[in-house]
Amino acid sequence: MEFDEFYQENYTRIYRTMLLTFRNPSLSEEITQEAFYRALRRWGKVSRLVRPDAWTMVVALNVGRDIARRRKQHEGRTSLLVEEETNREGQVDDRMAIVVLLNAVSPRQREVLVLRYIAQMSVTEIAKSMRCAEGTVKATLHAALERAAQVMKGSSYAED
Questions:
Q1: Sign of CA pseudo-dihedral 43, 49, 52, 58
Q2: What is the Cα–Cα distance from 87 to 47, expressed in whole angstroms?
Q3: How far apart are CA 31 and CA 14, in angstroms?
Q4: C-alpha pair distances (Å), 62 with each of 59, 111, 152
Q5: pLDDT tens digits, residue range 8-51?
Q6: Are the C-beta atoms of residues 16 and 118 closer than 8 Å to each other?
Q7: Distance (Å, rounded) from C-alpha 115 to C-alpha 113?
């Protein structure tokens, strides 16, 4: 596969994953572009991987963590919010429910949820990207889902 084709097939998914993880459109774009730049620089090796998209996702997450950590050190605590898109009214309720759920869990739980259900990474891939044991991923995922269920029970987004 050529890099251009790889880029076209994977950019949107990785960008959206970064957007849900880091909650800032311009930061997410910066992270995604940096990850693809690094993939391009190493394309000879990356292209031979079984899942070059997973490698690029892990790079993006690491870049995002580094940038977020640096910003936090320099700017203090600031919340990262997803900019609302009001031009797609049919998806607003779903997006609002997702934002409510993602706001209700810890950053680590949010990262696991996004990687598992949005990026559709396996527990093994998530464990590698987060540099932790698979059991830790499973426990974090379980706790995040429990918290999300509690939030949805008390939310106006829950269906009756």
A1: negative
A2: 37
A3: 9
A4: 5, 12, 30
A5: 999 999 999 999 888 889 999 999 999 999 999 999 999 999 99
A6: yes
A7: 6
Can you tell me which residue has the tokens 């899942």? Answer: 51
pTM of structure: 0.55
C-alpha angle with apex 70: 36 to 40, nearest 5 degrees?
Answer: 10
Q: How do the residues of the chain divide into helix, strand and coil, expressed in percent and rounded to 5?
A: 75, 0, 25
In angstroms, the CA 142 to CA 36 distance is 31
CA–chain centroid gap for 58, Å, is: 10
Q: How many residues does the chain have?
A: 160
Domains of the chain: 1-83 (1.10.1740), 87-160 (1.10.10.10)
Backbone angles phi, psi at 87, to 5 degrees: -80, -5
Report the alpha-carbon distance of residue 144 to residue 4 in Å, rounded: 36
- What angle, rounded to 10 degrees, do the helices at 123-130 and 52-75 form? 40
For residue 134, the SS3 value is helix
11 phi and psi angles, rounded to 5 deg:
-60, -50
Q: Which of 58, 79, 57 is nearest to 68 (CA)?
A: 79
